[in-house]
Each structure stands twice: as C-alpha cells, then as structure tokens.
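Quick review question:
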C-alpha cells in the first residue's frame, strides 16, 4: 500500500487556498489522505465542497497540525510567522506562499523546474517565491543554461489577482460603476484600478524601489545562486483580473544565444509554452494564460541596442504557476524524493 499524506491548507477560503483545492481535485495522482481546511476565526464553521463532500473550515490555531504531513500556507506573512513553527513542531513540512521566510538563508526558495534540488535541504519550512519572480525564472533559467546571464531588466504588468480575491472583486465592481457613470469606490487598492494602471501598491524605500521590485531582485538572485546578478525591475498594477505579464531584457555575460536557440530552449523547458508567431502577430496575452499551468513566452528577439542582449515578453497565471501550482509542485517534488519529514507510513 502506497503512503498517503495528510494535508492542511491554511488560508483555505482565499483565492490561492481555493486554487490549492482545485489542484488536489485535478491532480488525481497526488497521494492525499486527510484534508484539513484552516482559516481565520471569522471563516471557521463554513464548509467547502471538495470531491463531492462538504468539508468544514476550522480555525487556524497552534494546535491545528497534529498528524499533518504537508501544510500549505497562504494566509499572509503574519499568519505564517505566527503558526508555521507550530506546524513544523507537530511534524509537518510547511510550504509557505507568503514573503515571511523567502530570504531566510536556512529556508529553500524553490521553483521546482529551476532549483528543485534545493527543496530536499529543507529543515521544515520551504518558501514559495513571489509570483512575478516565479514567472520570470521560468523564462530566464533555460536561457541562463544556454549562456550565463549578466543583467536582467524587467517591467511587470500585474493583475488584480496578485492582491487576492477581494482585489479581483474590486476590479469587477469598479468596471461596472465606471461604465455606468457611477462613482468608483476604492477599498483594496489606493487608486482606481479599473481602466487605469499605477505603480505597484507596496512601500517605496529610500532607493526609490518598491517592495515588489525588491522581492523580484533578491529572490531571483537566491534561486539562481547568483548573489551578484544585476537585476532591476519596475512593477506596475494593471486592470487585468488574473495572469501577470512581464517585459524582459536579458544581457548575457559573453555570447548571446541566437533567437532560434533561445526559442528551442524555452520550448523544451517544462512548464513553458512558446507563443511567438510573428506573421500572425500572436504573442503571450493574459487572456490566454489565465487558468493555464504554463508560462507563455514570446516576442523573442535580439536587442538591437546591445550586442549581447535578448528581449522577450511573457504571461502567466498568478494564482496557478505564480502561487498555488508552484507550491503544489514543491510538495510533489518532496514526495518524489522521499523528503517529507513526519510523513506517516502505513
């Protein structure tokens, strides 16, 4: 009899939590035993449908993890810092979707297709990277394997989904109000998001970079094990429900790959779908990437202003590969490599 794993989802009522449940439904090969749904006291007592059953939502407390093997956390950094240690002490492996542990040197920061081998070195907690970082690395890693990357310039176009289910509802409600000529109400975002775009709504430090941009820089370096890699980012919120997009300029240390070599390397990389039809002017779009597991990459071309640089454009679903799917794949990697501590054997 194969081993089954008891799984807890902390933040089960949020957008990413719901996507974890969807993945557990879709990926029938996952060896799921018990499923425990956890959320705030406000959500405790609700039920969520899962494979024809109504499962209760329990309050997230320090005692929530007895018997749990894998705990997916998507309840925010504060909740992760408060309860992840309790989960580890109870014998669970924590896969955390917040920024709480990403830059902790003792915590692996993992995109399985890129640095899956780092996952098995965990000591109880693994970090899921920021959504924009995951999408960038899916395109950057195969090119870095062709020829070492020296510098990356990235501009992001980030959907409302990055701020959660309430932000998606706000975009829908503002769009209806705007088109009806009614006042636009701002609650989640500091600015109108419908029919508008603005600099990412995170704190700007003394350097002029906001928190989202700093995450992209530092996390990319950590995942690639390139602490001195030159990375700069500009992160923008756009009126798209879900699926982020990024414009990326990649400078190589020596010789740049040919466009065809780059296209082939990207097409062969697991989780990447090349959409690069110049004749039909068909390139990555968030409308195409929404709900999909793959990261769509196109507009692959030489940078005419630099002899060692390539340009590309990508779109990827922030809730799927940018969050829940990547965390789920970390769990699958750990299971495949027998690296789930505390797992109960039959």
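Suggested answer, residue by residue:
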């Amino acid at each position: 009899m194969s081993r089954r794993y008891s799984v807890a989802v902390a933040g089960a009522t949020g957008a990413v939590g719901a996507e974890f449940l969807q993945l557990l439904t879709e990926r029938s090969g996952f060896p799921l035993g018990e499923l425990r749904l956890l959320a705030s006291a406000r959500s405790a007592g609700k039920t969520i449908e899962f494979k024809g059953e109504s499962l209760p939502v329990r309050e997230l407390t320090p005692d929530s993890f007895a018997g749990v093997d894998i705990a997916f956390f998507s309840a925010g950094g504060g909740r992760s810092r408060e309860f992840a240690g309790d989960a580890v002490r109870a014998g669970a492996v924590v896969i955390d979707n917040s920024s709480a542990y990403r830059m902790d040197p003792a915590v692996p920061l993992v995109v399985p297709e890129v640095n899956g081998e780092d996952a098995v070195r965990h000591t109880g907690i693994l970090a899921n990277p920021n959504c924009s970082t995951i999408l960038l690395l899916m395109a950057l890693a195969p090119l870095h394997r062709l020829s070492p990357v020296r510098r990356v310039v990235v501009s992001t176009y980030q959907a409302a989904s990055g701020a959660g289910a309430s932000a998606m509802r706000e975009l829908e409600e503002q769009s209806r109000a705007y088109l009806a000529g009614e006042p636009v109400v701002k609650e989640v975002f500091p600015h109108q998001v419908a029919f508008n775009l603005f600099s990412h709504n995170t704190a700007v430090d003394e350097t002029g970079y906001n928190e989202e941009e700093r995450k992209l820089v530092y996390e990319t370096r950590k995942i690639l094990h390139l602490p001195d890699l030159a990375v700069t980012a500009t992160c923008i919120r756009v009126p798209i429900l879900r699926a982020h997009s990024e414009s990326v300029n990649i400078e190589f240390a020596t010789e740049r790959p040919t466009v065809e070599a780059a296209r082939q390397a990207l097409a062969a990389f697991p989780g990447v779908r090349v959409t690069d039809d110049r004749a039909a002017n068909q390139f990555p779009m968030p409308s195409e990437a929404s709900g999909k597991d793959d990261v769509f990459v196109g507009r692959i071309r030489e940078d005419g202003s630099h002899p060692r640089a390539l340009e590309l454009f990508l779109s990827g679903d922030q809730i799927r590969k940018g969050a829940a799917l990547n965390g789920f794949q970390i769990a699958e990697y750990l299971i495949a490599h027998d690296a789930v501590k505390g797992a109960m054997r039959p």
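Why it works: Residues 5-129+323-336 form a domain with the Rossmann fold fold (CATH 3.40.50.720). DSSP finds nine helices and 14 strands in the chain.
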